[in-house]
Amino acid sequence: MYKEYRTKHILNVHKHSDGGWFWTKYSASPYLGCEYGCTYCYCREDKYDPHKSERDPEILGLEDPFSQYIKIKENAPELFRKAILNKPKDLIYLDSYQPIENKYGYCRKILGICRDLEIPIFINEKSPLLLKDLDILKEIKKRSYVNVGWSLISSEKDETFSIFEPNSPNPESRFEAMKLLSDNGILSGTVFMPILPYIYDSDKNIEHVIKNTVLNGGKYILDGGLTLNGYCKSFFYNYLDKYDSSLIEKYERLFSSNLLYSQINIKIHKTVLKYCDKYNIQNYITRPINHFPENIQINKKVAENLFLKARDIQLEGGDKYKEWAYRKAAWEIDEFRDNILDLYKKEGCKGLTRIKGVGSAISLEIEKILRFNIDKG
Ligand code: SF4
After folding, report:
1. Percent of the chain with pLDDT over 70
2. Which residue among 31, 32, 36 has the greatest number of ligand 1 atoms within 8 angstroms of its CB, and so is best to mutate?
3. Are residues 274 and 298 in the same domain?
4. N or C: which end of the chain has fewer CB within 10 A?
5. What's the distance, CA 241 to chain centroid?
6. Do 241 and 372 lie in a common domain?
7. Which of 278, 313, 332 is the endpoint of a domain?
């Protein structure tokens, strides 16, 4: 079921950059709801769910409103242009190449606006439908930055896959699209999330996804675990039950023990690292910084370093206090308006500690990063 509507809102401006992951500061989507209906999708959770029965009574009676009721922002392109026009240039997260795009073409229009305004983009995608806009992607690449992360949980479509991603294009077609992008010089990689515990966390699946990424020209693997909250959990369990009912008890245990949850995710992450190492592919996205004003590019570089440290600690189940110390310092430096190198040259590490969130230990790490960059010229 589709419904067009007019809205005043299309651009999300996040408080901080999504440091260590996609590096995005903005996000936008011309459609609400997603026809692909992945059964693990966190967007059904109350705080993200775009459909509310008070506003859209049509959803009452639908089995899965999130995937069966798609709202189209009929003024999306004009609204997007207006909203982004005077914003500081930063990376935007896009997705939404779902079948309805064939009729409206709003993703294409939004891409065209990003090209004209030289806005760098990251696209998280499951559908080769994106390739219809290869011409614009190539132009964006010339003018700013484009990176397409292919969302994958498995390297092949089989019965298991059809349970967890019932309507989305098959993984093979995503790898083919990755190859085509790569052949056209467009940065691409795999967003390997969520790796479903006890289902897709085998060495075999992890190795296949990573190997296929490399074979198809992907440049990174970004892995992440499954989160299940509120309604998402009961929704997902219906499908888990179809797959293997004995797993419900295991999942219950997993999601009621922070320790077990963390142990399983660390184990999965280590397996990913093992195969990234074997196939010589990086486990993060290098932050694009050329679109920032030149005098703060060094700040962004330092922040990148600290964000990645925070992410490593998070994925390896390290000290939470340390993880947050790095992240908070990274946020402050990322948003610092003066050139951090000038500050360091004038006042040394002591000067760095005047930045909120930067203590003496972190100032020494920043010093190392700055020195490395000075030596590199
Ligand atoms: S494609 Fe993405 S947004 Fe759509 S249902 Fe799947 S996980 Fe959710």
Report:
1. 100
2. 36
3. no
4. C
5. 28
6. no
7. 278
What's this model's pTM, rounded to 2 decimal places? 0.96
Q: What pLDDT is stored for residue 345 in this prediction?
A: 94
Residue 124 falls within a domain, yes or no? yes
184, 301: one domain: no
Can you give the pLDDT at residue 254?
A: 97
Q: Provide the Cα torsion 117, 123, 125, 131; round to 10°.
A: 40
Query: What separation in Å is there between the alpha carbon of 37 and the centre of ligand 1?
Result: 6
Q: Does some domain include residue 204?
A: yes
55: which 2 tokens? 């506003």
- Cα torsion 267, 155, 28, 219: sign: positive
Q: Are residues 39 and 139 in the same domain?
A: yes
Domain final residue, candidates 278, 312, 339 = 278
CA 346/CA 348 separation, integer angstroms: 6
- CA nearest ligand 1 atom 4, residue: 34
The pick from 41, 67, 94, 98 for probing ligand 1's pocket by mutation, whose C-beta has the most ligand atoms within 8 angstroms, reads 41
pLDDT band at 373 (very low <50, low <70, confident <90, very high): confident
Query: Which tokens hold the place of 304?
Result: 């990148």
How many domains does the chain fold into?
A: 2
Q: What is the distance in A from the centroid of ligand 1 to the CA of 35?
A: 8
Q: Is residue 288 part of a domain?
A: no
Range of the domain at 114: 2-278
How does pLDDT run across 32-78, given as a tens digit for each residue? Answer: 999 999 999 999 998 888 888 888 888 998 999 999 999 999 999 99
Whether the per-residue pLDDT at 374 is higher than 90: the answer is no
Q: Are 210 and 269 in contact (CB under 8 A)?
A: no
Task: Please tell me whether residue 316 adopts helix, strand or coil conformation.
Answer: coil
241 CA to centre of ligand 1 in angstroms: 20
What CATH number is associated with residue 107?
A: 3.20.20
Query: Can you tell me the distance from the alpha carbon of 263 to that of 247, in angstroms, rounded to the nearest whole number?
Result: 17
Nearest-CA residue for atom 1 of ligand 1: 36
Share of residues in the chain with pLDDT > 90 (%) = 93
Which CATH number fits the domain that encloses residue 307?
1.10.150.110
Locus of tokens 């999965």: 268
> Do 99 and 240 fall into the same domain?
yes
Write down the residue that tokens 């995608």 correspond to: 125
Who lines ligand 1 at CB under 6 A?
34, 36-38, 41, 43, 126, 168
